Protein: S-adenosylhomocysteine hydrolase
Organism: Paraburkholderia phytofirmans OLGA172
Amino acid sequence: MKLEDRVIRSIAHRKGVVILRSELAALGSAAQLSRVLSNLVRTKKLVRVGVGIYAKTRLNKFTRGRAPAATFEEIAAEVFRKLKIDVAHGKLAREYNAGKTTQVPMLAVVDTGRRRITRRISLGSRFITYERSRTRQREERQP
């Protein structure tokens, strides 16, 4: 069986939408895996979200083209879960959810607490912006 077939089968059996390159590393060499993943991105069976991060696609019933299998926010949340990065909503989203403002935040902003993250996560023209809040950890500890 060709490596591309094994990668496609492995991706199809995974429950989530996000695929990390490190999860597929045991299937073949780094060069072979790079070639297969770039071929899958070119044929639109996967979309590249970041360095070593890919998302599954599905057929869009309206355009008959392939589109990501989840929303950008769901993909980003799954990426952070898989990378074991603890994030929270940004300041504007927290204020909106608490009812302090009626302005709906348009940008995807996540609060990383004291942790500094530079990983670029993007899909099309949307991308994640990071903000660091030194008080977030103190707020979470108090009941």
In short: DSSP finds five helices and eight strands in the chain.
